[in-house]
Amino acid sequence: QVQLVESGGGLVQPGESLRLSCAFSGSIFRFYTMGWYRQAPGKQRELVAIITGGGTTNYPEAVKGRFTISRDNAKNTVYLQMNSLVPEDTAVYYCNAHAIRPPFDDYWGQGTQITVSS
Length: 118
Prior knowledge:
4-stranded antiparallel β-sheet, mainly beta, globular
């Protein structure tokens, strides 16, 4: 069973940076596309960044140029480097693992709170 453990959330001021980590266990890491999602109060969960096993990345316009997703396949860990944070980035951030082979299971971390406020 895949387990995802996030770390690195907290309270930061606008303009500051933060790095999230997500430790993966329970299966073969490279067979999963990894992603970060976030959910703000009263809003739907939305994609923040995604990275394939081969390292291809994708970002929505809201974070493009500010956020960088990366993965270390030797450490079974995915990272999210967030720069130039703004209050609109305040949300609970979730790590996701999506299997690239049948049955294409999805797994979620427990979430970590990020608050951007002065």
